[in-house]
């Protein structure tokens, strides 16, 4: 942590699947997201010393876009180039389950009709995020620990950081036109800020990056969107940060 007169330091923890579902799904022009640029954008009053990104490698599913796993691999490779980003991978599971039919139907015995379905779920990321958050707070690695999620499963570790470890927490909500989780807001973070579409647009990676294996290109499917702006400019051309939307 820095001394007097220096900006307070922040560590940012990004729930990757929650960020995708809440904010990026259906918005391909924003998916080539520079996580460090986004953190700097919404936290201009802090020095962001690291971004921890928690996700899982998706699998190709029947009837789904076969190129989705390749686009994710390109993105993970791009993130690996960023000095302040660390990626933590959980597991992406696809299991056959027997579950009640929806809408509910009953058989001749009055029991719900059950059907075989394919259930996809990501496992381990929330536990990894909570564990890393608690260890970092115990080691006092930053002045504030900022969690980007709308998942109320993380309420307990946020409480523990404050009540047991004496750390400060901040909450970034990846929601648009939706209410942030009341359970998360009731953890009494030092502040609550909401990520906006403008923040995403100003925080895009360059279209082409280079690592030791060669070049990494922004996936073509993420280049434009008829419902949104044309391809967002690279992060080195972004305007001056605005700081997101503080609330308290």
From TrEMBL:
The protein in question is named: NYN domain-containing protein
Q: Which InterPro entries match?
A: NYN
Q: Where is this region: Disordered?
A: 211-248
According to the entry, every stretch annotated as the NYN domain falls at 107-185
The record ties this protein, via Pfam families, to:
NYN
Q: Which domain of life is it from?
A: Bacteria
User: Which Gene Ontology MF annotations are present?
Assistant: RNA nuclease activity
Transmembrane annotation, as ranges: none
Lineage start: Bacteria, Bacillati, Actinomycetota, Actinomycetes, Pseudonocardiales
